[in-house]
Amino acid sequence: MPARWSADSVLALAPDDSSRRAAVPLARPVPWDGAGAADGLVWGLCAGSGKNPYQVVVDLAGPAFKCSCPSRKFPCKHALALLLLWSAGTVPDQSEPADYARTWQEARQAKANGPKPSVRTGAADSPAATGATAPADEAAGSGSTGRGDSAAQKDEAAARRAAERAGRVTDGLTDLREWLRDQVRAGLAGSGLAGTGQGGADQMAARMVDAQAPGAAATLRGLAGAAANGGPGRLLAEYALLHLLIRAHERLAELPGGLAAVVRSRVGYPVRAADALAGPAVTDQWLVLAVREITDATVPGRRIWLRGRQSKRWAMLLTFAAPNGAWQDPGTARLRPGTEVQASLHYYPGQPPLRALISTRHADPAQGAPPGPGDDVGALLAYWSAALEQDPWLTTWPALLAGTPVPWGSARHDSAPNATSPGKGWYLVDGTGAALPLADRRSLWTLLAVSGGQPVTVAGEWHPDGLVALTTWHGDQAVTL
């Protein structure tokens, strides 16, 4: 069986946002019976409104989908839900497929190995329109012309699917560009976003989901918050970044590899684990510095920040939870601040390299020593500036800082060069007197209690709106905030 996909990769297959929303509640064991996985197939019986359950089968090589429900969408909500269960590790491996799954697979193989139909170019021939998949996605069977032909057909099918998706994304981004122009022509005050409304951004976000550009959709959904927190200037900056992303996607083939990977990721193209594993491994003693729960996404997740003892490199591990609470990668999800693990990591394509996955653990996680002195504010902002040069759409950067949390107006903080909101909030002030605003969190009192007015080491995330403190250290003990 191939490596399990992430929940994010599964949901990226959804034909529209309504299918994605409908699949999530079904991704729990209750409606399913006889689910299993073998020989590149995942199958299961899902209880529906009729007396007979729906037979659901997914061929992971295509991927290709089959469901006995009346839906005309491919994949339907049942196939998506089954894949979510499989990605979470709740579908058991079996020695061989169920009869109905094997029958479907053999029928597809027979069709792939039979006479080739004449080539047509109409839109109805696309997998998105018919629900059919390109032939010869499977290993060669009886009657095949050989392994080389099967591999070539696989490559051809994959290239066709990639081209079809790229076409949908391009069409969607063209619509987004016109929408952005309309917003600027009408003026920010008339957009409905300058106040508390979302204007037409929700509708355009839905259009981006249909165009298989979920990254752009997420940015559109966040416009109201950006306008509320940063005013018209921040909103206009978000518009400009979206426009820059559209222009970059138009020139995708001309961009350097690292920047092209960034653009694809920001648009929302799925990124395969195999792409990361193809790169070199970085073996180190990785200290777990911070963990951030992701609760505002379609699928809840967990972001885990590591830093190498020797390499001093940052790495971010990302794992998602199924609706039944099972984690896609339980070993990664269990990592806690203050522990460390000897492991080999592979970074996903992009720049600067941050997201990674663990390929090999050379030892079990164990309690680790504190990370040592953190950076000062100037060093963090220099790293952030260099990162923005490589990825203009970056919104989150890991931080390990040494400083003292103080309220605005204290004697030490009045001359802080980075303070911009007099009379509001708390700041972390380093030894030079430079300060960064601390984002409001319920756990801020824990940080203040550990500090007691003295310098502490803080690990967290730097965002344009402030520093999110996630971990501090009390002696040798990591304290989660």
Report the span from N to C terminus: 40 Å
Kindly state the mean pLDDT as a whole number?
83
Biggest sheet, open or closed, and with what strands and sense?
6 strands, antiparallel
Please tell me how large the radius of gyration is.
25 Å
Q: Low-confidence runs (pLDDT<50, min 5 residues)?
A: 116-147, 411-423
Which range best describes the helical content: under 10%, 10-25%, 25-40%, 40-55%, 55-70% or over 70%? 25-40%
Provide the structure class.
Answer: alpha+beta
The share of residues in extended strands comes to 15-25%
Shape: globular
- Beta strands, count: 16
The domain tally reads 4
List the helices and strands and how they pair.
Layout: H1 7-11, H2 17-26, E1 32-38, E2 41-46, E3 54-59, E4 64-67, H3 77-87, H4 99-113, H5 127-130, H6 147-186, H7 201-210, H8 214-221, H9 223-250, H10 257-267, H11 273-277, E5 281-294, E6 301-308, E7 314-320, H12 330-333, E8 339-347, E9 356-361, E10 366-367, H13 377-390, E11 397-407, E12 426-429, E13 435-437, H14 444-451, E14 456-463, E15 466-474, E16 477-480
Characterise the protein shown here.
- There is one protein chain.
- The protein is an alpha+beta fold and 481 residues long.
- It has 4 domains: 7-114 and 132-144, no CATH class; 165-267, no CATH class; 273-367; 377-480.
- It is 36% helix and 22% strand.
- The chain is built from 14 helices and 16 strands.
- The protein has helices at residues 7-11, 17-26, 77-87, 99-113, 127-130, 147-186, 201-210, 214-221, 223-250, 257-267, 273-277, 330-333, 377-390, 444-451; strands at 32-38, 41-46, 54-59, 64-67, 281-294, 301-308, 314-320, 339-347, 356-361, 366-367, 397-407, 426-429, 435-437, 456-463, 466-474, 477-480.
- The strands form 3 sheets. Strands 5, 6, 7, 8, 9 and 10 form a 6-stranded antiparallel β-sheet that branches.
- Helix 2 (17-26) crosses helix 3, helix 7 runs antiparallel to helix 8 (214-221) and helix 8 (214-221) packs antiparallel against helix 9.
- The radius of gyration is 25 Å and the shape is globular.
- Residues 116-147 and 411-423 have low confidence and may be disordered.
